[in-house]
Amino acid sequence: MMNSHENCMKYSPGVLLGNWYEDMRVREDKVKFYRNQTCASGDMQATAASDASCITDNTCLGEWGDVVILGQPLQLINVASEAALALDPKWPLSYTSPHQCLVTAADTARPQIRTTWVLHKANDEDNIAYKEQLKEGDILHFGQHIRIANEDSHPGGFFYLHSSIRDLGHVGSQPLIASQGACKDNIFVVAKPGERRVDIRGVGPVHIGEPFVLYHAATSQPARCTMKPQKTSLGFKLEVNCSFAGDNFSRSIAAVTNHPENLFVIGTETRRARTNLTVASLRSRTERCEWNATSMSCGSGLDILMSRIRQGALHFGGRLGFRVVSKALKAACREQRTTLVDRQKLLSSFRLMGVTIQPIDLDVIYKRFDHDGNGLICAQEFLRALREDMPPNRLSAVVTAFQKLTVEGGGSVDYRDMLNMFKHNATHHPDVSDGTLTCERVISEFVNCWPDMNDTTTVTLDDFVAYYTDISPAIESHERFAVMLENCWRIPETDDYKRGLSQTAGSLVCSNDAAQTVSRG
């Protein structure tokens, strides 16, 4: 009899019970794979903390060969280490102020808040002609002065890459940190590898994945990842500073560099990110912020901020609306000229209106409206964005009213004649008719809204429209707005109004004892 146990098929245990043994091994493999993935993406933190620091699914890093756009979130990857510049606001440094923090190079598996930077324009005082050559204002070019900001790491404002000579013992190597507040020590120059920092003859755009050097503008030292370990709040990362890799160079020498430690690229992946099966996408910024702050100077964040300022301006201006704000910024009426406003002036105007503005709000405003990176914005442009345009029906009524004033078709009207006509018709102003204001008060407010005007100046259609665009938001009713225009700019039958007298109402008693109300100039 053949032994029934010879040459039998070797089944794994439990084969007759649904192969539960294989199922258990598969589950163990999945758990082991999950643990490996968690360790690879954590930066020595828990998985939940790592996920909380991830960025966004609406913004991508761009494809290889695309030009680099200013004002967009991106990663700065060092060529030698393939690690991204990262912010560490929790790690104290003995030589920094409370508004400064550590910057390292981190090999993260996914883009994070601390590794996401935004390039801002900076003013180049030594080469004004270069700015005129740039036809594409939102594209990064070689030779351009920029600031590199982390916009979302702290509610107190943007953190800018910052470098300066610490003392005489560190002239060859400067610390590269992050600092709040824009200044000359956080301006860098983008240069091609192997070319001098001052050589800007190429004036070509920077493409995603194309290596470049970041020279500190004030000291001509290039940013560098030294490949040395640096202790941080998240464990050991790579040290970064401003120095030349290899030989030491004097600041007086127009040194060049093409060492990988001094080279950076934009938009590529870190070494760890390439080991993952999928490329990380950027998550919504509003979901990851623990504070109620504006994250970017575009989109809904800026809209919410401008809406808050707009409400404060209308509350402060009352019946005169944005005209009072225009006067505070010294930009009333004459919108064709350019009035530059610095941060302190704008902040004082906001405080006067009772609007609470945080430093990060000012950063957002100046990122949007400071086109040259010199710390100044055009008051007229800011006011146009703040007050918005009039509804079409109101604009049409304003144009019609102005056309009545320009009876000779010259396109402008004398300010003296316009003021005299307003005085003549002031008694018919809706606020006077309702008893809200006196005739003298209405005239006084109108005069105060036209600063720098005298008997020899003229008012154009743009000036006239600008005035009513300022006061339009303060008048909710379209009918009341139309009545105000009709009554205030009613053409008198005679030229008596040019004497500057307002109409006054009186009573005339006739022989039949009937009282009749008349108006006299």
Automatic annotation (TrEMBL):
UniProt keyword annotation of Calcium present: yes
One GO cellular component term: motile cilium
Alphabetized UniProt keyword annotations: Calcium
Protein name, UniProt field: EF-hand domain-containing protein
GO terms for MF: calcium ion binding
One GO BP annotation of this record: cilium assembly
Statement: the UniProt record of this protein carries the keyword Calcium: yes
EF-hand domain sequence ranges: 357-392
Family annotation (InterPro entries): CF161 (IPR055325), EF-hand-dom_pair (IPR011992), EF_Hand_1_Ca_BS (IPR018247), EF_hand_dom (IPR002048)
